[in-house]
Structures are given as structure tokens and as C-alpha cells.
């Protein structure tokens, strides 16, 4: 039998490593330490050297016997070690949880929400001994539990290295579900065409809502900034706080790294194609960025809603709109200027049965409760009391005087009257709420709005047609709203200067009379 020689480098926990033991491993056996099961360093060059006979000189009988004995000892030791390793490897294999589901992508989702959802999902499946464990590095976690009828544990892995990695992992079949804190880009979708239309409801699932909070140190007197000033700060055009009427001092910028969906969204919504200031400190982890801003009196950064922590959020405005803080109401209705959606992406027809089950759980009331508990904005619908702006149309103010607004708006595919993927799921959520609370249908009102592009008459007609499109979908579900109105561009929540702003203004609100 031939052997390979190795040396263990696990000096902290292994006696063989501490003794610098040369370890023979039979070929075909796992090349790991028999003491601690860690991989061995290849040390074949330190194996006993072959005995080479001197030309013309016959080896002595004593030497031949010694060589034979040494060889037999190596063979016997090799068999013994192989047996130990085989038994150890079998035990390790037996105890390693089988991965039933793999999530990869956004750090915003994967840091806390992803593992918490995986934990709740396993428990919902009836698993016992469910626990969240650290992975290979701080951005990875393993959630394991023993499913009913199984003798060994099962696991769900969560790798949170940034939204961009969701799509590379899906392309390389290294995950079952991609997590993204931004919408998939056309070029990314093209590379995943074999998995289906990644923009369709079969592939794209809205997990929850988040607001990108612009944060400063708690001692900073700034309470609000408009989007243009924020853009000029983060591109370096404004470099001192005195330029925005605040304290004096050089502004220190903190930003997420390039693979972050948070950064991608901020770049799209705020930077308007301009590069980030060269001196910005880039940070991969959301919590670490928030902590850095909270510790720096001159700092400013942007972060997801759950990660504000000890930092101070500021209200954000745009041309012709009110300054709004990122709150559960302003984010759930997507009126807050830097609201965003959190996504899960899957193949249209996943081969893994747990993929579809996990998505169904995540979008259910139980799953959305986990979203809310993790600091994000869940999509479970609620009635909310709201003060109406003085800028609102008179008829709108009169109808909403004694009414509550539901905590969502219906939005549409770009340039169409077709509801987007989130709105299609929200229809059923609203119908469930109306039924659960036993709200009479004659108290339900729909109000449509448009952007300001085009004539007022055309915009009013378009806003009404969108409200009626929602009404038709409710009728299919057995609910008939009593009042349906279109108010054109009468109450903008964002500037119409950008595609993103126009899409926010194209909406249908739902109100319920008290």
C-alpha cells in the first residue's frame, strides 16, 4: 500500500500539530488529521527516503530486514489510521446538516431578516432544535433544525455579500433564492433568461419595504435636506457643513460598497449618474456604517431603515414636495422619496421544492410579521390615520375628512395601466383585511393620481382609468368600492423630473370611511 505524508497545522487544538507529527495517510483515504479531522498540509517530501543500493555493492541482510520491518510498520499504521479516519469521516458526515435551501445576495436582507425568516420557516415546517449559527465569515449564517421524520438536522445557508452577488449565484447555481435590495438590472435578467422572465411575478417576489435613511451624527443640527443638496454632498460638490446652514466642519462621507443594493438604489435615486466623492469611506456591512456615522460628528451616510440605530435620520424632500422622514407609514405607501422594495428572486420553475414553500411563507402574514419584527416595513395591511396636505384637491380633502388610509398604494408597470408585481399580491391582502375587519364595501374608496406629463385633462382621465383598473380587480375578488375618483397630478409625492419620481406619482390610494 502506498501512502501520502501530511502534517497538521491546527496548532491550537491538535496534539499531533503541536508535536509536529508526520502523519502517513493511505492513498484513497481522506487527507485529514486523524486527531482533529482538519485538512493536512502535503508533506510527502518529508517521508522516509528510499534506500538506494550503491552500484556494485549488495545491501547487508540486516539492512534488508530493517527496511522490511519499517515497511510493514508503515502499512499496519496506514491501515489503522485509515480505519480511524473512515470512522471519523462517517461520523462527521452523519452529523453534518444537509442543506435544503441556499440564500445569497443582499447584506441588508441577509444580515438579520434572512436568517430570521429561515428560522421561522423551519419552525413552521415543524422542525425542532432550530438555531442560527455563524458561517465561514461574519456575512454568512447557517440556520439548522431537525425536520419531522428526519434523523439528522437540515440547514438553510444565508450568504449576504451584496445584491449583485444574488444574480451571479443564481447564474452559477450556487443558490436557490437570490436576495436583492434593488430591482434586477436588464443585463442581469438577460444572463438569467434560462430561469424565466426575471421581471415576472413567477420570478420576482417583493419581500418587504425599506426606506434608505440619510443619517448624520445625533449632535448635527440638520433636520432636513432636499435631494439636490444630498446629491451635491455625496458627490463632493458641497464639502463643508456650513454650506448647508449647519455646523462648520469638513463633511465626512460614508457609503456602502459597489456590490450593495443599497448603494445601487441610492446612486439611482440621488446621485443622478454622478460619481461618489473620491474621499468617501466605503463599508460592506450596514451596521458598521451606521456605527461609523454615529461616532463621527461630521459624518453623513445612507442606510436601510433597521440600521439607523444610534444615528439620526433627516427628512428628505424634492421639488414641490413636503419633507418626509422615513417612517413605517411613509415607506409602506412609498411616499417617502427614498423608499425601496426588497426582493427575492427565484427560477420560474424551481427544482427544489423548498424554494416555492419558502417564498409562500415569506409573503404570508407569518412571514411578513418576521419582516416587520426585523425592522423593515411589512406588507400586512393596516388602517392608518393621516393628515391630508393643504395642497390636496378640495373634493379629496372632503372625502378623506372622516376616513383612514390603508398602508399601501397600488402602483403600475411603467407607462401602463397594468398593476405591478407587488400590487397583484396586495389586492388579496386588502380583500383579506376588509373581510377580517368586517368593513362594509360602501366605505371603501379608491383615488387615482398621475404624473404631470401631458395635459391636465388627459392626466385626470389616466388617473381615473388606473383607479378603475384596481376597481375591476377588486370586483373579481367579490369586493366593490363605493367611490372611485381620479385627481390627475393634483397631489405629487415626488418630482416629475425623473422616471423614478413619475412612477411614484402614478398611484392609486385606498381609503376607508370611519
Plain-language structure description:
- The chain has 514 residues and is of the alpha/beta class.
- The chain folds into four domains: 3-94, no CATH class; 98-208, D-Maltodextrin-Binding Protein, domain 2 (3-Layer(aba) Sandwich); 213-325, 3-Layer(aba) Sandwich (D-Maltodextrin-Binding Protein, domain 2); 381-513, 60s Ribosomal Protein L30, Chain: A.
- It has 16 helices and 22 strands.
- The protein has helices at residues 15-18, 61-95, 107-110, 113-124, 163-171, 186-191, 227-234, 261-271, 286-294, 328-332, 353-363, 365-373, 394-399, 421-436, 456-476, 499-505; strands at residues 3-7, 22-26, 41-42, 98-105, 128-134, 140-146, 154-159, 177-180, 204-211, 213-216, 224-226, 252-256, 281-283, 299-303, 312-313, 315-317, 339-345, 383-384, 403-411, 444-449, 483-486, 507-513.
- The strands form five sheets. The chain has a seven-stranded mixed beta sheet. The chain has a five-stranded mixed beta sheet with strand order 13-12-14-10-15. The chain has a five-stranded mixed beta sheet with strand order 18-19-22-20-21.
- The radius of gyration is 31 Å and the shape is globular.
